[in-house]
Amino acid sequence: PDVKDAVLAAADIFRANGASVETFKMPIVKYAIPAYYIIACAEACSNLSRYDGIKYGYSSPNADTLMETYVKTRSEGFGMEVKRRIMLGNFVLSSGYYDAYYNKALKAKKLIQNAFYDAFKKYDMLLGPVAPTTALKIGESLSDPLKMYLGDIYTVMINIAGMPSMSVPCGFDKDNMPIGMQIIGKPFEEAEIMSAAKAFENVTDFHNKLPDLG
To answer: Which stretches make up the Amidase domain (predicted)?
Structure first.
């Protein structure tokens, strides 16, 4: 509720300063998270396959044979999240699952991109939250990857659509943690996004405040 209230309040500030503001929904973006992580993991799997400890990347000093070099280098050199993404990437690119997952994700990506282009036929910019919650405590989400992925729900849709956006401070929650909104614009119109962000900062002082964490 704090994040939603802060972003709506920011929209009211834009409205009070002459902007035309209205609520807009884009149902297709609910597919952004699964599509993004399927595509991103597939790309990570492909790109990181070259890190074998011979020509690229970290090389384990504890290996005696070539096979041990491969195994230990990748076991020691990659963190748990990277390993998780490599395994998921291998799965979605494997025979029998390529069309079921990867190709569908690419189609979803195109539909999301088209939805943004359609929106920009009517609107100059879109405004929304950066994240559904404020910052989590250190280590809080590491045991729950799904929760961690859902924290990206409002930003991966921008990445997958290839649209420029800018994060701007717009308030604080009940625990005095900072809240960010994002201003999303058309491709190659970053100057307009920055102008809108500057206009918001000219009439607010959130960007000058630091959270009082006691």
So the answer is: 1-193
- Selection from 111, 112, 122 nearest residue 24 by Cα: 122
> Any bridge partners for residue 171, and if so which?
179
Spatial separation of the C-alpha atoms in residues 14 and 181, rounded to whole Å: 13
d(CA 15, CA 23): 12
**Which comes out higher in pLDDT, residue 57 or 173?**
173
Output the six-digit token pair for 182: 């994002």
Taking a C-beta distance cutoff of 8 angstroms, is the pair 57, 77 a contact? yes
Extract the runs of DSSP E, i.e. beta strands, from the chain.
Answer: 126-129, 165-172, 178-184
What does residue 184 show for φ and ψ, rounded to 5 degrees?
Answer: -110, 130
